[in-house]
Amino acid sequence: MLFFLCSHMGMDRIDTARVAETLLAAPGWARVGLTAPTSHIRVEAAFELARVIVESVTGEEPAHSDQLGLSL
Fold first, then answer.
1. Is 5 left (phi over 0), alpha (psi -120 to 50) or beta?
2. What angle do CA 56, 58, 60 make, to 5 degrees?
3. How far is 51 from 71, CA to CA, in rounded Å?
């Protein structure tokens, strides 16, 4: 993931301010969920935060793994 963030759109390095702003704008449950006592909640929270960061970097929402691809 780090390589992806650094190599996307000619980025030379990760902009820490942008990452911080993205994390603060993420859903509160996901931020708090990282400290949950149960692993399944921590995993879901981590995936949600990752989704928010990817959406911020790419400008588009990644498709959900359960979503079927439709050919046009």
1. alpha
2. 85
3. 24
At 15-68, the pLDDT tens digits run 888 889 999 999 999 999 999 999 999 999 999 999 998 888 887 665 666 666
Q: Residue 42: name the closest of 52, 29, 54, 26 by CA.
A: 29
Token couple for 19: 């990452």
* CA distances (Å), origin 71, targets 27, 58, 60, 68: 32, 22, 19, 10
Rounded to 10°, the helix 39-58/16-25 angle is: 120
The structural domains of the chain, with segments of one domain joined by +, span 15-58
Q: Is the pLDDT of residue 7 over 70?
A: no
Indicate the burial class of 51 (C-beta count within 10 angstroms; 0-12, 13-18, 19 or more). middle
